[in-house]
Amino acid sequence: MGGFELRWFVRVAVVLMMAPQILGWGKEGHYVICKIAEEYLTEDALAAVKSLLPDQAEGDLAAICSWADQVRHHYHYRWSSPLHYVDTPDFLCNYKYCRDCHDGHGHKDRCVTGAIFNYSMQLSQGYYDLNSEKYNLTEALMFLSHFVGDVHQPLHVGFTGDLGGNTIVVRWYRRKTNLHHVWDTMIIESALKTYYKRDLMLMTQALLRNITDEWSDDVPSWENCKKMVCPDPYASESIRLACKFAYRNATPGSTLTDDYFLSRLPVVEKRLAQSGVRLAEVLNRIFTKKLSVAAQ
């Protein structure tokens, strides 16, 4: 890493320490997603990822998986806030890129699926162009790794009217919160406390076992993408899950306890696993492009 990039990352690291509460899957969820992804990277992709990671990450993709949340409120990165989600019309329970991918001012392509297309393109075009300084590839990797996770959180493809569950005030057991935060953070926190001794690595290992055992028959369909990246199907899955599981029995003022937690946890855990497998798939495609071209 050069001097400029190092100074840039140090400045951002200072911002991280001052950042308000983390949004989007929560720090724990994004960490698990990137840990799973690391297990499925090819040798070439892993080498490429390590070469782009900032020094402070010490070669660990998971260490920077929450960066995009941690800087989104800093004035240098406020432009990125709409890239974490894509809202859909209320109660339709479907997603369409042309209709839904825009920010609050109507600017097209400014949503989580648009961001995934953009940053995967930047990495693909920029990594093998040794003379290109058009893109900040470290930043592109950090954004892409985060946004692939976000599009799998059902309420990041929630209804426009309630801002993806953010305006639906509920109680999670005794704690007052909102429905979006329940799905970002609280289901995972409760699972860590109840089943995993508060240990993220135990949770990650359990999900990795499920990928090879319980979900092994499903994994090929998770990877059924014929392009470099396929965020639109992932968003469509999320809004269907939001309608079937997130919004159901979670009306404003309701108290969510064991019934909700135990029935929704399997959905959350599978989405974390899918995110990790699919993130690895995207990075493997991007960073084996040179080899495929050379083989032609």
Q: How would you briefly describe this protein structure?
A:
With about 300 residues, the protein is mostly helical. It has 13 helices and 3 strands, in the order αααααααββααααβαα. It comes from Anisodus tanguticus.
Describe what this molecule looks like in 3D:
This protein is mostly helical. The protein has helices at residues 3-18, 26-39, 43-52, 67-71, 97-100, 112-127, 137-150, 179-195, 200-212, 219-222, 231-246, 258-286, 289-295, and strands at residues 169-172, 175-178, 255-256. The chain has a three-stranded mixed β-sheet. Strand 1 (169-172) and strand 2 form a beta hairpin.
Q: What series of H and E elements makes up the topology? A: HHHHHHHEEHHHHEHH
- Sequence stretches where pLDDT stays below 50 over 5 or more residues: 3-22, 291-296
Classify the secondary structure makeup into a structural class: mainly alpha
The amount of beta strand, in percent, is under 5%
User: What is Rg?
Assistant: 19 Å
Which sheet architecture does the biggest sheet show? 3 strands, mixed
* Approximate shape: globular
The number of helices is 13
Question: Which secondary structure elements does this structure contain, and how are they paired or packed?
Answer:
Layout: H1 3-18, H2 26-39, H3 43-52, H4 67-71, H5 97-100, H6 112-127, H7 137-150, E1 169-172, E2 175-178, H8 179-195, H9 200-212, H10 219-222, H11 231-246, E3 255-256, H12 258-286, H13 289-295
Parallel strand pairs: 1-3
Antiparallel strand pairs: 1-2
Helix pairs in contact: 2-7, 2-8, 2-9, 2-12, 3-12, 6-7, 7-12, 8-12
Question: Which labels suit this protein?
Answer:
disordered N terminus; disordered C terminus; 296 residues; single-stranded DNA endodeoxyribonuclease activity; S1/P1nuclease; PLipase_C/P1_nuclease_dom_sf; single chain; 3 strands; glycoprotein; mainly alpha
